[in-house]
Specification:
Its main location: periplasm. Pfam families: ZnuA. It is found in: Periplasm. The chain has a domain at 191-300: Rossmann fold (3-Layer(aba) Sandwich), CATH 3.40.50. Helices cover 44% and strands 10% of the residues. It contains 11 helices and 8 strands. The protein has helices at 2-16, 27-36, 60-68, 84-87, 110-115, 141-158, 163-188, 204-209, 228-241, 254-261, 284-300; strands spanning 22-24, 44-45, 71-74, 93-95, 196-200, 214-219, 245-248, 267-270. The strands form 2 sheets. The chain has a 4-stranded parallel β-sheet, covered by helices on one side. The chain has a 4-stranded parallel β-sheet with strand order 6-5-7-8, sandwiched between helices. Strand 5, helix 8 and strand 6 (214-219) form a beta-alpha-beta unit. The longest helix is centred in the middle third of the chain and has 26 residues, at 163-188. It is globular.
Length: 304
């Protein structure tokens, strides 16, 4: 009988210790998931910083991690192409592109139409053409809120014993998201009419949400630096456009940036849509929003 009483607490402990494991494809999704899973196991990350989701090649260890996770959060094959065939057969995946439908006005607003003739694209291949479908959902605060809601709903299905924790975490995230959105809008308001170029066509949601004056982009895939002809075209466009800034990303080599900027008045800024340097935590997505806003504001206002 004594052995039974020793065994029973251990059994109850093992049952109560079970918790859902979440694996996210990219860092921004991990930031959102970190808020919703707070109090349980921290979400894991599949693609470490520095790896582009556009052309990442899965390793056998990645496949094992995907199959082992209780839930895999990813955008969809339109972004993480290498995950498509694998996750299409996995019941443990949450595919955001099938759940979030962009509003029609996001692709037809006057601000974007006004700038269409100034957009420069390096590659037109169908595999990486974002002209018809923007996959960078996490850059729209409204979509970030939806991602958090979808994740919370799925976690509640998988782990109903912790429904209160997921609901509380979602409520806290939603409240802080609204406050941060207002703060970022106030930061960016003074630069809303200042023109700029970006190398990577990744910021459409962000730019439409905050009504920014992008003049164009040069590549749809940050892993592919512009070629010599494109650099020449960019250089000419910069001299003609009155752009104040060109925003590169950590993946671009300084030599390419310098070649584009030579003999122009535009300044160089750096934006990181994959939040490479943000440490995951319950408030990390909001830190990411502020980081993007500060980088844009400082460059456009010529702040050191």
């Amino acid at each position: 009988m004594k052995a039974f009483f020793v065994f029973l607490p251990l059994l109850l402990l093992s049952q109560s210790a079970y918790a859902v494991t979440v694996l996210t494809s990219i860092k921004p999704l991990q930031l959102i998931a970190s808020a919703i899973t707070q109090g349980g196991p921290a979400p894991d990350l599949l693609l470490s910083p520095g790896n582009s989701p556009h052309d990442y090649a899965l390793r056998p260890s990645d496949v094992r991690r995907i199959k082992k996770a209780d839930l895999v959060l990813w955008v969809g094959p339109e972004l993480e192409a290498s995950l498509g065939s694998l996750l299409a057969e996995q019941p443990n995946s949450l595919t955001l592109m099938t759940k979030i439908t962009p509003d029609e006005h996001e692709h037809n607003d006057e601000h974007e139409a006004h700038n269409t003739d100034k957009i420069i694209i390096e590659h037109q291949d169908h595999a990486h053409d974002h002209s018809t479908q923007d996959t960078h959902l996490w850059l729209d605060p409204h979509h970030a809120g939806t991602i958090a809601q979808l994740l919370a709903d799925r976690l509640i299905e998988l782990d109903p014993d912790n429904i209160a924790r997921y609901q509380d975490n979602l409520a806290a995230f939603s409240s802080q998201l609204s406050e941060t959105d207002q703060q970022v809008a106030a930061k960016l308001a003074p630069v809303a009419d200042i023109g700029y170029f970006v190398f990577h066509d990744a910021y459409g949601y962000w730019e439409r949400h905050y009504q920014l004056a992008k003049l164009g982009h040069f590549t749809v895939n940050p892993a592919r630096a512009p070629g010599a002809k494109t650099v020449s075209s960019i250089h000419h466009a910069l001299r003609q456009s009155q752009a104040q800034c060109v925003f590169a990303e950590p993946q671009f080599k300084p030599a390419v940036v310098e070649a584009v900027m030579r003999n122009t008045q535009a300044r160089i800024g750096v934006l990181d849509p994959l939040a490479s340097n943000i440490e995951p935590g319950p408030n990390s997505y909001f830190a990411f929003m502020h980081e993007l806003a500060d980088a844009m504001k400082d460059c456009l206002l010529n702040k050191p």
